[in-house]
Each structure stands twice: as C-alpha cells, then as structure tokens.
Amino acid sequence: MRLLFVVNPISGGIAKADIVDKIRTFCLQKIYNADFYFTEGTEQDKFEVNRRIWSNTYDAIVAVGGDGTVNLVGKQLIGKKIPLAIVPVGSGNGLSKDLGLPQDPAEALEIISKYNVQRVDTLSVNDAPVLHLADLGFNALIVSRFHESETLRGTSGYAWHLLREYMTYEAARYTIMVENEASFGLRAFMVTIANGNAFGSNLRINPYGKPNDGLFELCILEEFPKTTGVNILYQLFDDGITDSSYAHVISCSHARIVNVDNADFQIDGETQKHSPDFLDIYIRPESLPILINPAPVLG
User: Fold this and answer.
1) Start and end of every DAGKc domain (predicted)?
2) Pairing, β 270-271 against β 247-252
C-alpha cells in the first residue's frame, strides 16, 4: 500500500515529530510506502497536495491534523476513488469524532490497515466544498477569535473566547429559503449548515444528522435573552438543543440564505476572509470516499 500523509506541523498546538515517528514505524511494520507533505499554511498547500495526488498512485491520502487539514485534503478527493484517512491531532477534530474514528493517533493509524471504505455526503456552499459544518453568526465569530489567538488553544481556548464575546454579541438578520418553499426572515444567534452532529468543541448542534443520507440540516438558533444562555449551552452539551423553543432543525437538499448583516462565516473550522451576501447550498450525495471503522457507524 502506498500512502501520502499530509501533516499540519502546528495544528492543535501539538508538536508532530513524535507522531511522524509513529507513522514511519507503523508503515515499516506494515510494509507500506509512505510519502509526506508538511503544510505551510499558505494557498500553495492545496496546489501541492493536488499535484501529488495526480502525479502519483496512492491507495489513500491521510490528513494528519485538525479540521482545517481534513478539509484541505478531503476537498481534493471529492468525486475521486482515492479515500481520505484521518489521524486527528487538531484542536477540534469534529468530522473524525462524528464518524466514530479513534482520537488516539496510534489507533487511528490502524483504521488505515483495515481499509474499510465508505462514501459520505459533502456540501457545496457557493461552489465551495464543505465536509462537515459551516455556519454564520456567533460560532463563526468565536472561530475567528480562536485563530487570531496565539496562546489559547483547544476547548479551553474556545470557551474563553465564547465567554468574552457572548454578552456583547448581537443576533444578525437572515432570509432563508428551503427547497422551493416560500422564504422567511428572522434574527438568529447563529445558523449552522450541518452534514454532521457536533462541533469539535463537542457542542451537539444537530442530533439528527447522518453523513450519508442525501440530506443536510439547517440548524437555526434564534435570538434569545442573554439570561437563557447557560441553559442553551447545557442543552448543546447534553444533546438536547432541539428541546429549546429557540432552536429549529430543517432537513433539506438545497437552501439559500441571505446574510443581511454580513455576519461572520466559517467552513469546517476555518474562518472565511470575506463574509458572503448570500449562500447557495446543495448536497453532494456520497461524493467523498473515507476510511472508517469496519463496524457500521453510518446510516
């Protein structure tokens, strides 16, 4: 088996030298051929990864990093036969958690040797690929603050920025049209476009999501009194957000969102530099091959 490991050397604030050594040892033991590309955090990364995929014959491309690294690799494999594999070593690791993949790097490597390929859905948002979650509003703002910080990482860093921004955050206006239904407007704390269940911070925004059902969910958290925030946060951690009268989940295969107030926008844990005026969202059924546990976790 020949593998390309795409390694983010700084994801999650974790030094990767030990992990790379474990990967090399694993490949020697399994008699796998291993190539490595270390990302630099520039636009050149996507061109270099794509060049290597097309100029070599690989059995899998392995993302070694967090959600941003998974997105970098995964979007190059949409519509292709080469599967994505994940060694999660980032701050959130949202997609790998939702797919039931091991969070321990050594255990994640063993998934490769089992080579169980399943195809999952992806999303197209204004023609940009989304593997897991995108959203407008408060969470996107926190993701932006998180990436701006050089010291506060992991769940504790996310929580610190959340508490810092919460009291002064104002809900934004959106106009939403689902399928061919009439549009409706509202003020929302955030609107999540979900092909999964939970953020990497373990906040479960979408209890109903399945990664291969041909549908995605719009998870709308309407404007709510600030005093309700603690209860809503508890519901997000406790898988009970749909019990809130402020939360609405809509399953669909196509939707449009007008971002009236140009609220912050993020895709798969990566802040977008320019907040779009509108989002045009489609499902891409079973478009991404991925290596997962042989035990069925999808469906």
Assistant:
1) 1-129
2) unpaired
Q: pTM of the predicted model, to two decimals?
A: 0.88
Whether the CB-CB separation of 215 and 252 falls below 8 Å is answered with yes
Beta strands 278-291 and 117-125, pairing class: antiparallel
The distance between the two most distant Cα atoms of the chain, rounded to a whole number of Å, is: 59
As a 3-state breakdown, the chain gives helix, strand, coil percent values, each rounded to 5, of 30, 35, 35
End-to-end CA distance of the chain: 28
Low-confidence ranges of the chain (pLDDT < 50): none
d(CA 61, CA 3): 6
> CB 228: neighbour CB atoms within 10 A?
12
Residue 41 tokens read as: 């955090």
Give the H or E element holding residue 45.
Answer: helix 44-55
